[in-house]
Structure formats: C-alpha cells, structure tokens
Design goal:
By secondary structure, chain A is mostly beta strands. Chain A contains no helices and eleven strands. Chain B is mainly beta. The chains are: A mainly beta (112), B mainly beta (112). At the A-B interface, strand 4, strand 5 and strand 10 of A face strand 4, strand 5 and strand 10 of B.
Chain lengths: 112, 112
C-alpha cells in the first residue's frame, strides 16, 4: 500500500520568511496530492492540491510542486504570517481506489 | 448547511464499554470515511463508504464497526473499548466526481 513520509516534523520561521514542507510517497500509481491545514481543536481543511499531470500549482502565497519521477512533492508558503501557524499534512491517493494516505504532519510556528 | 457534523465532541469510556460516534453530512455526499489521529502518526483511515449500503475497511479497522443505511449518516461503533483506542476521530465526506474531502471538527475519545 501507499506510504507517505513528511519532513520536517516541526518548523519555526520568522514572519515574512518562506516555509517549505516536503513529502515523499511510495506508490507510483498515486495521482492526487492534497495539502491540509489543521488548526488547534479543528478538523483538517484543504488548502491546495495537485494532480499527477501537473508539476506546479500556485494559489496566492501557497504553492505546491510535484516531481513524479522522484515521487516527492512540496508545499511552499511565502511571506509567512502568524496566522499560518498550524499543523500541515500532506496526503497521497490513487483516485481509482479512493483511499487517502496522510503524512505524519508538520507543526509550523510563525513568530512575529 | 452544516457540513460534516460529529457527536459527541468529547467522551470518556471505561475499558470494555461500547459506544457509537455519530457522523452526519447534509451535502448529499456519496463518499464518507472515518479517520483516527494519533500524535506523530497523522490520520489513519479506519473505514469508508462509497454509498448507502456499501462499506469497506481502511488501514486500521480492528475494533470498529460501521454501517451506512442512509446517504447522510455514517456511525462508527466501538464494540469493546480499549485504551489503545484513545484518539481523536474525524469523519469526512466527499461528493461524487470530486477528490476534495471535507472533515468534521473531530471527536476526542479517552478510554480509561
């Protein structure tokens, strides 16, 4: 089955800096890669996703890149703000099987 | 439109007790699922359903039962609670034709 590894487990940055979180996956058949943000006491919320036919996707300060050959994908947050502080999860799925497998999460702390 | 609603929010059980975590969605989503979240382990799929009357096992199904008698509801039953089932449980749903999964707010379960 699919296995997703996520690094780092914690990341501290200063406000305005960029943050990068990296994930690798094992199943080459996975074709959908979402990123979720989880605030304290809340459920995960989708912030951006990418499919295997695309190499990069941007949404304002957030971008995701995918390298299918190396089987890794990354989340990039630019101009970080204190409200970006949360736990971020990457995930991978083969849309033919509909089982979303999550990474172990990255706790991002943005200091003012 | 309430989205995905989970009850109860918090629950303490004694070892060996049974209980049901309720999940309801008002978005007419075909796909529903249950995840558990443990420190350092991300979210792991327990059971899922692709429609009323259809359920299947996820990554960690042992000790849990589910049923899907209606499109709206997907209860998770703990048959005989064990301390290892202390966790945060998230219900999620997804509309047909979309890969975007929407999570509930979570249910915190402690088994003593």
């Amino acid at each position: 089955g699919e296995n997703v590894e996520q690094h780092p487990s914690t990341l501290s940055v200063q406000e305005g800096d960029s943050a990068v979180i990296k994930c690798t996956y094992s199943d080459s058949a996975s074709n959908y890669f979402p990123w979720y943000k989880q605030e304290l006491g809340k459920g995960p919320q989708l912030i951006i996703d990418i499919r295997s036919n695309v190499g990069e996707k941007k949404d304002q300060r957030i971008a995701v890149t995918l390298n299918k050959t190396a089987k890794h994908f990354s989340l990039h947050i630019t101009e970080t703000q204190p409200e970006d502080s949360a736990v971020y999860f990457c995930a991978a799925m083969n849309t033919g099987f509909q089982k979303l497998v999550f990474g172990t999460g990255t706790r991002l702390l943005v200091s003012p | 439109n309430a989205g995905v609603t989970q009850t109860p929010k918090f629950q303490v059980l004694k070892t060996g007790q049974s209980m049901t975590l309720q999940c309801a969605q008002d978005m007419n989503h075909e796909y529903m699922s249950w995840y558990r979240q443990d420190p350092g382990m991300g979210l792991r799929l327990i059971h899922y359903s692709v429609g009323a009357g259809i359920t299947d096992q996820g990554e960690v199904p042992n000790g849990y039962n589910v049923s899907r008698s209606t499109t709206e509801d997907f209860p998770l039953r703990l048959l005989s609670a064990a301390p290892s089932q202390t966790s945060v449980y998230f219900c999620a749903s997804r509309p047909q034709g979309s890969d975007t999964i929407y999570f509930g707010e979570g249910s915190w379960l402690t088994v003593v």
